[in-house]
Predict the 3D structure of the following.
Amino acid sequence: MGKVWCNIGIFIWLQIVVGFTFTHAQSVTSVSGIVKDSLSGEPLAYASVLFEKSTIGVMTDDQGAFKIQNDKDFTRLVISTLGYETKILELKAGSKNDFPDILLQPSSFNISEVTINPLKEKYSRKNNPAVELIQKVIDHKNDNRIESKDQYQTEIYEKLTLSLDNFNPNLDKGIMKKLKFVKNYVDTSEFNGKPILTLSVRETLADYYYKKSPKTEKTIVKAKQQQGIDQTLDDSGTLSANLEEIFKGVNIFDNNINILLNRFVSPLSSSLATSYYKYYIMDTLKVSGDECIDLAFVPVNSQSYGFTGRLYITLDGNYSVKKCLLNTPRHINLNWVDQLRIEQEFKRAPDDTWVLNTENTYINFYLIKGAQQLYAHQVRNFDKYNFHPQADSIFGLLGAKHILAEANHQADTFWVNNRHIPLREKESALNDLLTEFRKVPAFNAIIKMVEILITGYIPTKPDKKESQFDIGPMNTTFSTNKLEGFRFRIGGVTTANLHPQWFASGYMAYGLNDRKLKYNAQLTYSFTKKEYHEKESPVNNLSLIQEYDVYTPGQDFLFTSKDNMFVAWKVGEPVTQMQYIRKTMLQYDKEWLNGLSLKGWLRNENNEAAGTLQYNKYMEDGSLFHIKDYTTSELGLQLRFAPGERAYNSRFGKESPINLSKDAPIFKISHQIGLKGVLGGDFHYNHTEVSAEKRIWLSSFGHIDLNVKAGKVWDQVPFPLLILPNTNQSITIQPETFAMMRALEFVTDQYASFYFTYYLKGWILNRVPLIKWFKLREVISVSGVYGGLTDKNNPEINPTGMFKLPDGTRPLGDTPYIEASIGLENIFKILRIDYYRRLTYLNEPNIKKGGVRIALRFSF
């Protein structure tokens, strides 16, 4: 539940911001129909349907059906497909035109001395000239792609615009009476010719450097700017960073195409192309002066993660890609996307190298079918290619991306002189539109609400640029547990508007049952100046922390606060063994741009048993002596290395659930030393932990999230300082926890664990008749821990001086603890439900062998 804003939440804000009710009144020519073979009557899948003299077109689905419309008075519809005569239909303008049977007559034609005839039998790859052609393209792709060069440099201009699509509101009703000014800012979509209202524009100008061996990529951002209604919502660039992840540049030559946080099989995939797609030679034509073969392709399964589209292959014998068009199939198992189209065109450099010239990505998003849609257009333009750059100093920089100090402050004249493509008139007027919107109180209220939802904080000034203190996070205001009962919490943080290097944060909490005031206070000094908050990357912070609060041993939520209201709903046996912890901590955090980070700390902590938890120490005569609390003083160090991880400026750090960049491997090693006799420390100990995690993509067949950990306590210590496997008693699914294990059920001083989750993305269910229309997706997980308790830390073997284990707690035995789950996600597009089953230690008292857990998960 804590991941509500993980994926599609990036777009929800725009839908809410413009959450007014629009009444559409427009003159639209719409067409629907089914294209069939005139002889057999069989539907013709993936036929091309296009308004004559326009770029507005679709392809028929696997049943030959299509729907298309325009409001530009195009009244002739062209239908064509391989092996059939092209048909042109005359339409009645401004009306619905329905053609239940559009019959195409078979034909035959010659292309490059190969005769293609319409075939009524099943598609065959054997002796198919289209398959032979694509295989030659794939065989030559490594020679034709620019990455075959030893090194190169190019200048890239990127522009991402977000708009309301098909925007034609009734300005005479309701709140729209106050928004009549928007009619002056309506533009026309480059994608489908519909009216749009542009709300946001982001621009970047950068130099990109590539070296083949060792493979190195560097991006130097020379200029970047954004304007629009989302500018105040972009919390230190968090929104922009996630949009960059969603709209990654496409490389048609890669085996997989990464866009919308998914992997689509490329039509040029070396391993899957000919088995995943059907190919058809359509025609020969000139593309920007080059003779090309028009090669169409469609996925074998229209719900899988592939494309329909065209490849235009040069006829010069080099089998180069001159142009490509990629569209998502109509029935693809993809959420929130109505249409997606990617266009790339290549040009020949002076040395005959084919290089990418332009890339256009068009996407129509929706939250509810039939409601207002969001239109996104991203253009990338490449210029100034140089295959012999003097870039040794550039390649020596740490990190893949560097933003120059002046990048965010370039003058308008710089953009006028350097942007590759001029802004459209309405795009240039965005600031004027925003000024008009801000005169409407309802708009300002909606902006503020969305800002709170995205950041979790409430600024104390209307203008975020002036707020010196933010209240929050708001999702921790109310929670509950067995010891405190109903718990209230309020907190906040200072911002860089108060001081760019000194930051203070904290909270106060109160439980109605225990009637104790808890608190946290933190003072941080950043060695670098910040724009808004202290966790902006790269972090170089020294913090002093004082805290008094309640914790549950053996239950740590790694990716959300323990006070998150979504984890307050517990299942199973109530957790009553708890601790009051009072700690003082000095912590240093340092990040480098190469993915390496360091954390060091000195902590003094007092632990007082609470609830039903007791600390009882074995004396030499075998009797038990009750101890109210104990104190530890600890020196710790953690190294974290995530090569290739992008910089991320979330308030919650790189491992925040709203960080959509999850592909970098992450390695961690930490060591803690207990200092007996220092600041009242009662114990000496050494504790080492190592871990590694990685998201493994299996092309369009989903991905695996894998995490492995190991740890060891080297000295004799009481059970609270041993290793307690991390459990989850809440109804929500939480990563890196055991759902069917009770808190404090097992204890160990050495262990190895794993967490394996496979998101199949509908790989199986997409192929099951009837069920496939629900677009459900499968999830399978297995997790386990193996370890043991050495004799020196086992109070049953070596009791003197040791704490008695709590009732219901036992050493982890020779058998590993294992649990597994099987689940469905994408239920109503937002809900995931898993059934967990405990596979070992089934005869323990007071356990649950199985149970259901849920999560809200927004994903494309």
About this structure: DSSP finds nine helices and 45 strands in the chain. The radius of gyration is 30 Å. Residues 1-8, 18-26, 108-121 have pLDDT under 50 and may be disordered. Residues 120 and 398 are 59 Å apart (CA to CA).
